[in-house]
Amino acid sequence: MTRTGRPAGPASDTTATVLTAALDLLLAEGAGALTAQRLHQVTGVSRSTIYRHWPTPNDVLAALIDVAPSPRRQPSGDLAQDLHAEIDALCDRLRDKPVAAFLRALVAADAGLRHRYVEDLLAPVQAVLRDAGTPRAAAEDAVAAIVSPLLVDALLLDRPTARARAHRAVDLYLTEAAR
Amino acid sequence: MTRTGRPAGPASDTTATVLTAALDLLLAEGAGALTAQRLHQVTGVSRSTIYRHWPTPNDVLAALIDVAPSPRRQPSGDLAQDLHAEIDALCDRLRDKPVAAFLRALVAADAGLRHRYVEDLLAPVQAVLRDAGTPRAAAEDAVAAIVSPLLVDALLLDRPTARARAHRAVDLYLTEAAR
Amino acid sequence: MTRTGRPAGPASDTTATVLTAALDLLLAEGAGALTAQRLHQVTGVSRSTIYRHWPTPNDVLAALIDVAPSPRRQPSGDLAQDLHAEIDALCDRLRDKPVAAFLRALVAADAGLRHRYVEDLLAPVQAVLRDAGTPRAAAEDAVAAIVSPLLVDALLLDRPTARARAHRAVDLYLTEAAR
Amino acid sequence: MTRTGRPAGPASDTTATVLTAALDLLLAEGAGALTAQRLHQVTGVSRSTIYRHWPTPNDVLAALIDVAPSPRRQPSGDLAQDLHAEIDALCDRLRDKPVAAFLRALVAADAGLRHRYVEDLLAPVQAVLRDAGTPRAAAEDAVAAIVSPLLVDALLLDRPTARARAHRAVDLYLTEAAR
DNA sequence: ATTTAACCGAGACGGTACGTCCCGTCTTTAC
DNA sequence: GTAAAGACGGGACGTACCGTCTCGGTTAAAT
């Protein structure tokens, strides 16, 4: 096959326009607002174009997540310090909205996306534990006990994530592990 | 004033018909299916009637929750035993679907309903702890660490609730408290 | 079956509004304009309503035809006089537009409708001949020779129907039959 | 001046590809299918190219008609024989579809094209009569009476053209003229 | 037994969103 | 200079649902 003609370039800057607007919508009105119609109204980009590139709202959500930066921090080597730092970072992300909004959106969305996103969220903490030589099962218990309450705060109770409680949970785990 | 005519009774058994169908719908297709239209198709009850009694889908959801029995168990007095029993009961409820479905539905619904429902879910465990004289803050930490992972399993990770892990968490709390 | 509730009445006066507008549209812009969209723009009746009652443009056309009066004239008994009168009437109908417009519209429409309409158009002439005792085959030949040119004028050549020519054809038939 | 690049020729065999496909489409689905989009799907020729050469569906139709061969037969000199032969030829063309399809298409299309096409269709018969010295008015009457019924059969009644009736009409004209 | 208020079904109506399709224009690339 | 590929805005199409409404029937209490 000769593969002639203009190559399948993505959009122009349409992508940028739409996705930033989509993020705003997600934060302001929730996942239900990630509609072709709604995005059209907000961005002025035509409905056809939006359907062309993101046939379903789920596709918009996926694109948003792909764009979102997942920050990397380098470990100091000290388990306690690294754990506390990681938890602080997670609380920050949850407080600063997009992540919490993503979570709520994902409850109603594709299971694949949802799992991927949550695992990505848990990964850093799990990595710290594993680097410190924690056995796999114990690490998972710890992550669950420490991180899940934060997610529940953001997802179900609409309250600021209980940062202090999370740090207490970390300390509990550390003293337990030291024994 | 003569106050004659048929008194403003509720419906006949329409209520039962509609609400059981609504529960089925909720379990099978999610909260998005709790539509007047949809309920009409499924039950044969006319659209008008449904709008009359439950003007919005949220009202259907609320009615469903009000109907759902929240089981009461009487404490044996032994903290450890009671805690484990309560956790088992919660896992059962989450495994048997309706509760998990309610939770998913409520993520996208009215905040008031959501808070009420989650608190009701946590209440029994909290009650056991409080009856044993646990200080309020410690009790909340424990509940968070023990129950939240179960909710995350059901809501975000679509896995059967990790019953064993929950029991380990209970034990961890008990030994910690004993110290 | 108890047959309860409001009986399936047709529309209110929606029908009248829409159909008169439809006739105007048909005459002014041709069959292609008998669209739900177009009818909505012109009448203000909502698109939903139009789709409800006339799901396809063809249904509108059919309704129009059903409404259109097909005039009845009583025969004098004199073959020549009746034939000429019938032809004059037909020419009038073709000149006064709706019938010609219907014909053009029907070329692109449902075959059933088309046949019915054309037969209705030919029927009066055929009736006159049959009443005079003309054998069936001869009558059909005559009708074809006399009427078809008028239809072709209106349908394909966009010229006023050649009334004089039609009358000459009638005379030709009469003298031929007399022989 | 160096006159470089590909010379401004028309297309390669694109024209052939597209027009034959267009004819198939016309016969199979009617004039409404002569769309740039549709032609692209069927031929593989790109939409751009089609728009370049035939900006509107009408242009495709016109091109089709220009391509269609309008057969020429040489007169024997005998009026009766030539007339019958000409009518036979016309019936054949109407039976073999493309001509009938063209006619239907043209009812909804450009008036100019339509007139031209119909006149071309009538021309051979008219020519035979004129060559035999028939006065203009009489010739037009005869053509109308003989040919119009065939067109009505094909266009409005969807029946095979009544060849026998046409020949009878010819005979009627001939005896009438002989008198 | 009659009255009378409430319930219930059926459906008309306007409105909005959805997802698909087509249109016509354009830009970019390859030949 | 022609062709291919496709982005883009625009609009129609047919469907589905929504919420409101007006009717007509049915029912069950209160008189």
Subunit organisation of the chains: homotetramer
Number of domains of chain A: 2
Low-confidence segments of chain A: none
Number of helices of chain A: 9
Radius of gyration of chain A, CA atoms, in whole angstroms: 20 Å
> Into which percent range does the helicity of residues of chain A fall?
over 70%
Structural class of chain A, by secondary structure, is mainly alpha
Strand runs of chain A, count: 0
Q: Beta-sheet strand percentage of chain A?
A: under 5%
Mean pLDDT of chain A: 88
Q: Which two chains form the greatest contact, residue counts included? A: A-B, 31 and 30 residues
Terminal CA distance of chain A = 68 Å
**Coarse shape of chain A:** elongated
Largest sheet of chain A: none
Keywords (chains A, B, C, D): DNA-binding
InterPro entries (chains A, B, C, D): Homeodomain-like_sf, HTH-type_TetR-like_transc_reg, HTH_TetR, Tet_transcr_reg_TetR-rel_C_sf
Protein name (chains A, B, C, D): TetR family transcriptional regulator
DNA-binding region (chains A, B, C, D): 35-54
Secondary structure: elements and pairs:
Four copies of one chain form a homotetramer.
Chain A: H1 14-29, H2 36-43, H3 47-53, H4 57-67, H5 79-95, H6 98-107, H7 111-131, H8 136-157, H9 163-178
The structure holds a DNA duplex (31 and 31 nucleotides).
Description of the molecule:
4 copies of one chain form a homotetramer. Chain A is an all-alpha fold and 179 residues long. Chain A has 2 domains: 14-67, Arc Repressor Mutant, subunit A (Orthogonal Bundle), CATH 1.10.10; 79-178. The first copy, chain A, contains 9 helices and no strands. Chain A has helices spanning 14-29, 36-43, 47-53, 57-67, 79-95, 98-107, 111-131, 136-157, 163-178. The longest helix of chain A has 22 residues, at 136-157. Chain A is elongated, with a radius of gyration of 20 Å. The mean pLDDT of chain A is 88. The interface between A and B is medium-sized, with 31 and 30 residues. Chain A binds a DNA duplex (31 and 31 nucleotides) through residues 2-12, 14, 35-37, 45-49, 51-53, 55.
